[in-house]
Amino acid sequence: MTPWSLSPESLQVIHVPPIREYLQRLDMRSIPELASSSSPPSLTGPLQLTGRLPLGVREIISSGGCIVGLYDQTPVVREPNKPLPPCTKVLKYTRDENDRNWLISIKVEARILDILDKLGPHPSIMKSEGLTEDGLVLKYYPNGNMGDYLIRYPEVSLEIRLDWCQQLVAAVSFIHSKNVIHCTIDVSNILLDINLNIILADFQGILKNSAGEYMLDGLSREGSKSSMPRPFPYHAEKITDIFAVGSAMYHIITGGEVFPELDSVRHAVEVQYRFRNTQFPRDDYVCSHIIEKCWRGLYSSIDEVSEDIFTMQSASWAGDVAQKLEDGFFFQV
């Protein structure tokens, strides 16, 4: 029996384990000590990621709770002096093939993505090709995630950044309409396709039924900088996703994470203290009123966020047109 031979019935309802069991899943030793938490990781040199390589995995490109590797579903023969064909898929799999908790998380993600595809599909949702014996096959997006992209290309225009925020909100609106709570909205889980449109990834969150009861729970939750302070951190609702959207928008608009002087793990208590006491960043940035409303829990739905972003986009466009009129742009021959 393979690790993926869990019966379908075992995924009808996933009960949240005791908090101790949940915390045991977090391997704190894998979190590197940062020389300066305000300094982004270097992207100039190759980052060596290690872990097991199931059959078909060329190389590891991401390593967190789960591993993601470039994947050839059909074996590729390497010929001398010829490069391998480009990968179009990745495999998401567990560090330890016998870790039942992470196995269930990946199976939950597969189920949620399958449901969203059948109820949609939506252009900003990660595309899945289903489970194999080793893990979950997903479409590969070579532009990587939003956080890394903004480090490589910090001069992205405000117009594009606002478009990204609107695309993110549209994706979250879609999943919320299908009773899915993402639970880990963050720039590391926002990918960019070949046309630089956003793709929301990592769906190890929650699926509810029409009565609001948990049907599936992949047990993933936000990091401290995306987490709404609440009495029970593992209880998630649409409003907690909206809070996380605020932090993601802050990163997209400003190019950096909220509270850059604080590490999200080592200073998690301080981060949550600041959010709880509305000690938000005081720097001047576009959409600050929208982002702070997300953090304050003042939106009753993600669609209200979309409306405010649209107003911001319209004002930006009107201002641009007014400036061009003033400069005589439209009258130049």
TrEMBL record:
GO cellular component, one term: cytoplasm
Pfam families: PK_Tyr_Ser-Thr (PF07714)
Domain annotation Protein kinase: ranges: 55-333
PROSITE patterns: PROTEIN_KINASE_DOM
Domain of life: Eukaryota
GO molecular function: ATP binding; protein kinase activity
Biological processes annotated in GO: signal transduction
PANTHER family per UniProt: SERINE-THREONINE PROTEIN KINASE
Name recorded for this polypeptide: Protein kinase domain-containing protein
Species, as recorded: Penicillium antarcticum
Organism ancestry: Eukaryota, Fungi, Dikarya, Ascomycota, Pezizomycotina
